[in-house]
Amino acid sequence: MLYDLIIVGGGPAGLTAAIYATRNKLKTLVLSKEKGKLSLSPVIENYPGFKSISGSELLEKFEEQAGEFGAEIKEGEVLEIESKGDKFKIQTRENIYEGKLVILTMGTEKAKLNIENEDKFIGKGISYCTICDARFFKDKIVGVIGGSNSAAMSALLLARHAKKVYIIYRREELRAEKILVDKLLKENVEIIKNSVVKKVAGENILESVILKQNEKEKTLKLDGLFIEVGYIPATNLAKKIGLELENNFIKVNEKMETNVKGVFGAGDITTCSNNVEQIITACSEGAIASISAYRHLKNRK
Predict the structure, then answer these.
(1) Which of 78, 106, 127, 201 is 20 to 30 A from residue 217's alpha carbon, by CA?
(2) Are strands 126-127 and 72-75 parallel, antiparallel or unpaired?
(3) Which of 56, 53, 51 is nearest to 40 (CA)?
(4) Residue 268: other Cβ atoms inside 10 A
(5) Cβ distance 124 to 204 under 8 Å?
(6) Share of the chain above pLDDT 70, in %
(7) How far is C-alpha 124 from the geometric centre of its chain's CA atoms?
(8) What are phi and psi of 97, to 5 degrees?
(9) In this structure, how many other beta carbons lie within 10 angstroms of the beta carbon of residue 187?
């Protein structure tokens, strides 16, 4: 079966692109390895139309709408993309699909600290998913590394379960929105500023972290550590097909076109994100990419 458009990635950018494509009567397939970071957000309060909604609920609404318009949404990790004349062959672990055009919207992946013993304690005290693991730390002492909105929301969720929550941040002031910081101050959360985690320690499970603070080191006893130090673009697939990158992001123009004809990019994976990793901007880029793809096909005909 030949699709008009294959979208790789099932987050806000990819599903918005699917909605616009199917409304333009393009036969559209969305391939997604996993639900993505939106599904891990416990609460969203800045997406228009919803005063408060969980990330997983919002993602379900995107999927439902795209599906109702006719988009096929399938789970599958894309391993290879090969240009075959005026179409592309997309290979997953299970199947091979063909499409006239491709939009890449794989987004970003959680960044690691890359410190001593980090890998040793993954799943044994160290977590990158608060919504997945917060309940395992009831009445425990936990830490969150980071100063962004995601770190603040992580700490707020943990405060519902843990006895004590520390936010460990390398700067003087958190980067999170003030409304979130104000909420933190009302909870059992303590902010440790100007501090960097140098090492995690323990026998079989995490027991403590070594902090460097004002050129001095100190040990902080913890039962759990949640890492929220940002994301890195998932561009391994883009590199394989020769897309031009800039600072490891897919380089696109105002039409979301890449340097490879017939391949578009959208969302946090592109240079257009400008470090503004917001749902609404990802949706905008997905819409632009989809409209550009439709016009590309129309001109080709």
Answers:
(1) 127
(2) unpaired
(3) 56
(4) 28
(5) yes
(6) 98
(7) 23
(8) -120, 155
(9) 13
d(CA 58, CA 68): 15
Q: Give counts: helices (H), strands (E), the chain.
A: 7, 19
Amino acid at site 228: E
Say which residue the tokens 């391993």 belong to.
79
Retrieve residue 230's tokens. Answer: 């940002």
Query: CA angle 269-274-279, nearest 5°?
Result: 65
Residue 38 has pLDDT above 90, yes or no: no
- Please, which pLDDT band fits residue 275 given cuts at 50, 70 and 90? low
Span 149-199, pLDDT tens digits: 999 999 999 999 999 999 999 999 999 999 999 999 999 999 999 999 999
Kind of pairing, strands 249-250 and 245-246? antiparallel
Q: What is the widest separation between alpha-carbon atoms in the chain?
A: 67
Mean pLDDT throughout 238-266? 95
How far is the CA of 220 from the CAs of 6, 64, 168, 209, in angstroms?
Answer: 48, 45, 11, 5
CA nearest to 52, candidates 153, 161, 178: 153
Rounded Cα gap, residues 73 and 182, in angstroms: 40
Q: Are 4 and 30 in contact (CB under 8 A)?
A: no
- Distance between CA atoms of residues 142 and 218, nearest Å: 16
Rounded CA separation 88/85 (Å): 8
**Cβ neighbours for 6, distance < 8 A, ≥ 6 positions apart:** 28, 29, 30, 31, 88, 90, 97, 99, 101, 102, 103
The answer to whether residues 225 and 126 touch, using CB atoms and an 8 Å cutoff, is yes
